[in-house]
Amino acid sequence: MKLADYDFNLPEELIAQHPTPERDQSRLLLVDRATGSLQHLQFRNIVDQLESGDALVLNQTRVMPARLIGHKADTGGRVELLLIRPLPSGDWLSMGRPGRGLKPGTRLVFGDGVLDAQVVQRLQGGRFQIHFDAVDLQRRMEEVGEIPLPPYIRRSPDAVDQDRYQTVFADRPGAVAAPTAGLHFTPELIAAIEAKGVTVLKVLLHVGPGTFEPVRCDDPREHQLEAEYCEMDAKTVETLKRCREAGGRVVAVGTTVVRTLESGVDSAGDLQVFKGFANKFIYPPYQFGAVDVLVTNFHLPCSSLLFLVAAFVGKDRLFAAYREAVERAYRFYSYGDAMMIC
């Protein structure tokens, strides 16, 4: 494997900067992974591509207002934090800017004193351990924090993003980025899918910044994916097993769902309950043990997400689909259009 083989050029104007007016108005590129044939649909047409007896699996994580902008207490210098997840100590694993200015002991202030913090130590990978004085941190984050839009969305978050950068089924705060394939679903669309006899299930993976970091190793197999917390309970596992035994398909909505499901596949190929941190990096060749159909957005070049999709559909078929998407001006990345690979 060579990293350069997973690079591609994308016209900047195809990087979606805003969501579509309606969630299910986005486009859907249907890919047959057996033949490579392509169909161009609207996302709301996904109902027609699902069958009674299928199981549709969603990621219920909710994006935190994890971007905090404040200043150093002593100098007034600007500081920006991205909170990733709580540590066992009660402190928070975070990313910060300016990195060199965040020395242990530095006091930080956010929201004119609404939230105070202190840098405990610098960690590997540009991460920091941050201690917050507040016992009600989640509430104060809601007051002074921002939704952390991806860096390729070149604008500040607005009121629309407060709604549209969350899925309609998000109910477990803990992510720093949305599981973007789920952004296309509306309550009405989910109801129509269930009315067709499709079982809708939820798993959890709190999306961290490592998910979107480019793979930089010349040999991608040397890349270390940052661990993210995920859960899949016994009821979900049993329902998915029954689905497949009855001839139904497991339809994973997003790469985060794929990694959660595949993290629960044991050495014998059986799906098991899973709860904990997973850093499963899926790349070609890979034998999927729990997923039959994948719904996903279009991903960054040389990203771990692109490698996962290539493992599912095949590199040649994937890049043929991407070339078609570029030619037809599909919208890319978080607020972009979607693919359904059957």
Description:
This protein is an alpha/beta fold and 342 residues long. It has helices at residues 46-49, 137-144, 159-164, 187-195, 234-245, 255-263, 304-313, 315-327; strands spanning 27-31, 38-42, 55-59, 61-63, 67-72, 78-86, 92-97, 107-110, 115-122, 127-132, 172-175, 199-205, 228-232, 250-253, 274-278, 293-297, 338-341. The chain has 2 domains: 3-63 and 161-341, QueA-like (3-Layer(aba) Sandwich), CATH 3.40.1780; 67-144, Thrombin, subunit H. It has 8 helices and 17 strands. It is globular. The two termini are 25 Å apart. The mean pLDDT is 95.
CATH C-level label of the largest domain: Alpha Beta
CATH topology of the largest domain: QueA-like
What structural class do the secondary elements suggest?
alpha/beta
Helix count equals 8
Q: What form results from the Cα inertia axes?
A: globular
Percent of residues in β-strands = 25-35%
Strand order of the largest sheet: 2-1-17-16-14-3-12-13-15
State the end-to-end distance: 25 Å
Could you give the count of β-strands?
17
The largest pleated sheet is described as:
9 strands, mixed
The gyration radius over C-alpha positions equals: 20 Å
Low-confidence stretches: none
Mean pLDDT score:
95
Q: Assembly type of the shown chains?
A: single chain
The CATH architecture of the largest domain: 3-Layer(aba) Sandwich
List the helices and strands and how they pair.
Blueprint: E1 27-31, E2 38-42, H1 46-49, E3 55-59, E4 61-63, E5 67-72, E6 78-86, E7 92-97, E8 107-110, E9 115-122, E10 127-132, H2 137-144, H3 159-164, E11 172-175, H4 187-195, E12 199-205, E13 228-232, H5 234-245, E14 250-253, H6 255-263, E15 274-278, E16 293-297, H7 304-313, H8 315-327, E17 338-341
Parallel strand pairs: 1-17, 3-12, 3-14, 4-11, 14-16
Antiparallel strand pairs: 1-2, 5-6, 5-8, 6-7, 7-10, 8-9, 9-10, 12-13, 13-15, 16-17
